[in-house]
Amino acid sequence: MSEASSQRANRPKYLVVALVVALLFGAGCWMDGCNAIALYKGGHLNPSHASQGIDGEADRAQVEQLFTRFVDLANTHRSRGIPIGAATLVLGAALLAVGTRALAGRTAARSLLIQLVLVQAAVVAAGFFLNGDIRAAELDWYTARTLALARQDGSDAIKLAQLETLMAGTRRYGVPAWIAIRSIASLLVAFALTRPPARRFFDAVAEAASE
Of the four, 60, 61, 117, 165, which is 20 to 30 A from 47 by CA? Predict the structure, then answer.
């Protein structure tokens, strides 16, 4: 068996899963950060774009009004929104870069990745609590747009009621549950990276590279 094949064989499967999850965190943070920065830089903020595809005048007016309220509220709280968005973007880029190095077995990347995973969990949780009013306004707009499009597509009253209930449940329980799951997953990733088999794998790769 070749040296590279031996190293792959000695890499714990849970470590591969943990590293992939860390990379997914990085991609998610990158996209969320980009969207936040685009919002505060004025990208795609035309209310007519927010209601694109909606034919009904009343529905379109409501959707545009809610979108404008969301944007105005976000701009009112730029002092907290921009730092969180920028931090999320930077953390996403760092997680992708360091996670890729850790996946290749770089020893120094392991300890740094542990710190980044924990920091991103803290930043995401902070954004959830600090930007709750902005998120609520965005969900008001998104819900109104989704229901308007469903009515336009001919959904009956029962289907509309079911859709509204589903979106209300997702809003009330889904988002907090996702934050909780993400926080727990972050702790599990950090824990996986500290396990003795994981440390032995990274040490073996470093030793092989130095020979």
Answer: 165
